[in-house]
Amino acid sequence: MAKMTRPEIRALSKIVDELDYYEILRLQPGAGSTEIRQAYHATSRHFHPDARRHLDDSLIEECTRISKRVTEAYCVLRDPRRRQAYDAKLSRGDGLRIQIAEARAVHQKETVQIRQGRTAQGRDLFRKATEAMAEENWPAAFQNLQLALTFESDNAFFRDQLDSLRDAHPSEI
User: For residue range 48-62, what is the model confidence (pLDDT) as tens digits?
Assistant: First the structure.
């Protein structure tokens, strides 16, 4: 990254909130983890307030503001789950920033939906399968898991449960 002039730093500080995380780090949305890390380190070194001690106080404040956004961008883009939540938010047009807690909440909601089912039928059949397993009624558990997969064929958790059941009780199913 080329050294920025004082007016360029001031201008960037004014528009930094209008940039998405990819723009802040000068990355393409498909960038890999190595590219993200390299872009972060280059940008961070450039704007970190300690690297800009020679500037006047107002420019140090602007560099600090930019540096915070650079760190925020890196924290989101380096984590695949946070990045996925952020990309979804960008594609919906819901804003350019995402709080770490918000990204975590999105991931937890998705995890719960996968584990319990995304559809009403999938959730109901998985609940029935769980009840049947608790009662050690393996044929009913197997049947309900198979039916749940008809409603949510891409649900890896349901498939794993079915495979585990098949492996643990092959003669009873």
Answer: 877 777 778 888 888
Tell which residue, 68, 64, 41, 39, has the closest CA to residue 53: 64
For the chain, which residues make up each domain, given as ranges?
A: 6-113, 117-168
Residue 113 confidence class, pLDDT cut points 50, 70, 90: low
Would you list the DSSP string of 16-49?
GGGS-HHHHTT--TT--HHHHHHHHHHHHHHH-G
The span from the CA of 95 to the CA of 99, in Å, is: 11
165 vs 173: CA distance, rounded Å: 9
The whole-model pTM stands at 0.57
Strands (E), 5-146: none
The CATH architecture of the domain made up of 6-113 is: Orthogonal Bundle (1.10)
Rounded Cα distance between 34 and 95, Å, is: 26
